[in-house]
Design brief:
With 403 residues, this protein is an alpha/beta fold. The protein has helices at residues 18-28, 39-58, 72-82, 109-117, 138-151, 174-183, 203-206, 257-271, 276-294, 321-330, 350-354, 359-364, 376-402; strands at 6-7, 66-69, 84-85, 101-104, 125-128, 158-162, 187-191, 210-214, 225-229, 235-236, 299-300, 311-315, 333-334, 366-369. The protein folds into 2 domains: 18-271, Aspartate Aminotransferase, domain 2; 275-402, Aspartate Aminotransferase, domain 1 (Alpha-Beta Complex), CATH 3.90.1150.10. The structure holds pyridoxal-5'-phosphate.
Length: 403
């Protein structure tokens, strides 16, 4: 996509994969409702169920444990506000049986705001700190679980930890964290939104009881996502959206057949490209080396720990992210500052704040996130724009000194 513009904002949305576009268009041509028993209905049902198998396969799960939603935000709200049910316990949502919720401070707003909206009693919202590298430490998690036990003895806590951060790309050591959660009798829910296409995901290996995805982060259409439960005993305690009993009673409303078919096609496409993360690492590392040459004082957030192969979050002193974004855009380069805000406003990042990143760096943090279609020419264009911006900054500094 080098010629016209360089799209380097894949963590906000990945471009629609051609196979997903094709699947969406052919699904839209079908007239049937998947709940109808006639041939047209069965054809639509066939698409939904095929996509369910493909989405399950993407994370090593079972089709019967997939619930389609309108995206990750709905998934988080469903799990937190309807509550989770396991064979032995009911977790938040059903007021009398609600347990505490522990969430990392760096979770996406979809999770943090869903917790806010869940109406939990005082003391039931426990914020889990992260290290300066953006990692959840097993000891901090154990302490949070102990706090949860003290607040609500005998009630299992729901723990929410993301697989990888959308702003920094930092990957959490989930298997180790899951062991701590299991030991304390809690339930682990993983926001795996940034995983597909960047990392292999196996729900069992992560140790998650449930995880959720959003199709548009890996080549599917916007507005569709899924919850994948690890086992048949884990379910929502009720439908978050009440209606006609679709999705095995977990999510009412006629299924978004075209969106779901597109998500399934994108999941198949990701599985067909197992080498993609390795290619991304090469491009990303080359980009970061060149960034280091361009500005010796560049700070790359999370550079010492395991990160997504496609994400670079960096800051250069004296460069304001708000101004840089405009300059990049004018030069035909789409990047982002911290998280993409719904209002288009640039806000200080709660993720970087939780990591203790100083305000000066937070205000300059720029996120470049790439994907399998990204070319060297795209990154050249980004670096050329940055070079121009740095030259302007130097010129301004010089004239200020001369004045
Ligand atoms: N979780 C993470 C880590 C994300 O990056 C996003 C999207 O930016 C979401 C959740 C929310 O996804 P959606 O807006 O598709 O519901």
């Amino acid at each position: 996509m080098g010629a016209v513009r360089a799209y380097l904002d894949w963590n906000a949305t990945a471009p629609l994969h051609p196979a997903a576009r094709e699947a969406v268009l052919s699904a839209m041509a079908l007239p049937g409702n998947p709940s109808s028993i006639h041939a047209e209905g069965r054809a639509a049902r066939g698409l939904v169920e095929a996509a369910r198998r493909d989405v399950a396969a993407l994370v090593g799960g079972e089709a019967a444990n997939v619930v389609f939603t309108s995206g990750a935000t709905e998934a988080a709200n469903a799990l937190l506000r309807a509550g989770l049910q396991t064979a032995c316990a009911l977790l938040p949502g059903a007021a009398a049986l609600a347990g505490p919720v522990i969430a990392a401070r760096i979770e996406h707003a979809a999770v943090l705001q869903a917790i806010e909206a869940a109406g939990l009693p005082a003391g039931y919202r426990i914020a889990l700190p992260v290290t300066a590298d953006g990692l959840v430490a097993p000891a901090a998690l154990a302490a949070a679980l102990a706090e949860a036990r003290a607040v609500a003895p005998g009630q299992p806590a729901m723990v929410l930890i993301q697989l990888a951060n959308n702003e920094t790309g930092v990957i959490q050591p989930l298997a180790a964290l899951a062991a701590v959660v299991r030991e304390a009798g809690g339930i682990l829910v993983v926001d795996a939104v940034q995983g597909p296409g960047r990392l292999p995901i196996e729900i069992a290996a992560l140790g998650a009881d449930a995880l959720f995805l959003s199709a548009h982060k890996f080549g599917g259409p916007k507005g569709v996502g899924a919850i994948i439960f690890a086992r048949s005993e884990v379910r929502q305690s009720r439908a978050f959206i009440a209606g006609g009993g679709q999705e095995s009673g977990q999510r009412g409303g006629t299924e978004n057949v075209a969106g779901i078919a597109g998500m399934g096609a994108a999941a198949r496409a990701v599985r067909a490209m197992p080498e993609a993360p390795q290619n991304l690492i090469q491009l990303r590392d080359e980009f970061e080396n060149r960034l280091n040459h361009l500005a010796a004082d560049v700070e790359i957030v999370g550079k010492g720990v395991s990160r997504l192969p496609n994400t670079t979050c960096f800051a250069i002193s004296g460069l304001s992210a708000a101004q840089a974004l405009i300059a990049f855009d004018l030069d035909g380069v789409a990047v982002s500052s911290g998280s993409a805000c719904s209002s288009g406003k640039v806000r200080s990042s709660h993720v970087l704040e939780a990591m203790g990143v100083p305000a000066a760096i937070r205000e300059g943090a720029i996120r470049v996130s790439i994907g399998p279609e990204t070319t060297r020419a795209d990154l050249d264009r980004c670096l050329a724009s940055l070079e121009k911006q740095l030259a302007r900054r130097r010129a301004t500094a010089q004239s200020a000194t001369a004045a």
